[in-house]
Write the structure tokens for this entry.
Amino acid sequence: MKHIPDDQTLTEAGLSAAPEGKVLLLACGALAREILDLIAANNWAHMSLHCLPAILHNHPDQIPKAVEDAVKKYRETYDDIFVVYADCGTGGLLAQTCERLGVQMVEGPHCYSFFEGNAAFVAQEEVTCFYLTDFLTRQFEAFVIKPLGLDRHPELRDMYFGNYTTLVYQAQTDDAALTGLARQHAQTLGLAFERRLTGYGDLATTLETIKAP
Amino acid sequence: MSDEEDDIILSELNDDDLVAQMFDDLYDGLKEEIEEGVDILLERGWAPYDVLTKALVGGMTIVGNDFRDGILFVPEVLLAANAMKGGMAILKPLLAETGAPRVGKMVIGTVKGDIHDIGKNLVGMMMEGAGFEVVDLGINNAVEAYMDAIKSEEADILGMSALLTTTMPYMKVVIDTMIEEGIRDDYTILVGGAPLNDEFGKAIGADAYCRDAAVAVETAKMFMDRKHNQLAG
């Protein structure tokens, strides 16, 4: 499998593509490990991966332009580009951007949704759940604690999370240490804890549909 | 904060310096200092409405501008809002007694399926600061809750908030229901929330999308002025 940068690099810088495949997967850095694992497991030699900084998750207004810039930069190098983002809080703007650029993207509102399976996620209607994936569990400080100022002002916790009841850890991998970490995060936020082993959900089935041109 | 600033005794400052210090204290999110400043100004005979507009809203306007310009971020704005809330708690009963001017009435709430209320709460507080009466429906509101409230409260403005891409379309459900009942044009409808934009606001038939609390206040005032002018005409 291709060398995977550490989580901090994926958060802040992403992952540069190596032009080894015909299809570029243009993805969120938070999905790098999962996508590379799927590529290796399925021997999808036609795919290359390029990741934008995962921290864009916290700035969804910047995602459409970042995706557009990357599509324009790489579209001459590859036969096809597939955007491995869901809506991710862009309010439909990413879908509009992808449509205008003529590239496909993952269906669903968020990675939380497609990991669990979009249909199942919608049906559950869990409005008071706060979700963490494997990546977000590992990068909890960078994505939750620091941006919300909870390291400096822990008294703000209930203003942010007072309406939530449960932290749902969507486990992509069966990792006891990561589960323990997620449980700690639930305690930090004052929430009940639930773990679901989702695997890669709709991410796997979506990538399976991308054939070599 | 430096030791020198720690030594400031609010009651020894003249009015102008005290208000300037309250601006700083709001900016720094110092709730107790704001409550003390409000008490001092009231003891000096300031009208509650003047304390609200000149000291608190003035200070929060600076916070709002710096948030808009990327100088302050959400945690700092929340701390400032919390400090302002402390001052407002002292002023609210006094404002009711003294008959402060009322600009209009707003019913506000987060839409069904959505529990996020930070933005909504900021808007509600700044609207109150600007002289609006605010009825806050809280979170996770179905269309019936909005319809009942705007009618029973005889509101001028309906404000709807959503943080999720999945919940923001519910705003259209509410507006379409108002159209069906023939009451859409009786209200100004303002919408807000992180994933929204101008285009979405127009598409669902809202009067305006407001990107932050300060814009919400200015937009609400503009629509109230327009309404008053129409009535006068």
Notes: The interface with chain B takes residues 60-61, 87, 89-93, 109-110, 122, 125, 127-128, 147-150, 152-153, 156, 159-160, 163-164 of chain A (CB under 8 Å). Chain A has a mean pLDDT of 93. Strands of chain A lie at 23-28, 47-52, 80-84, 104-105, 129-132, 166-171, 192-197. The radius of gyration of chain A is 17 Å.
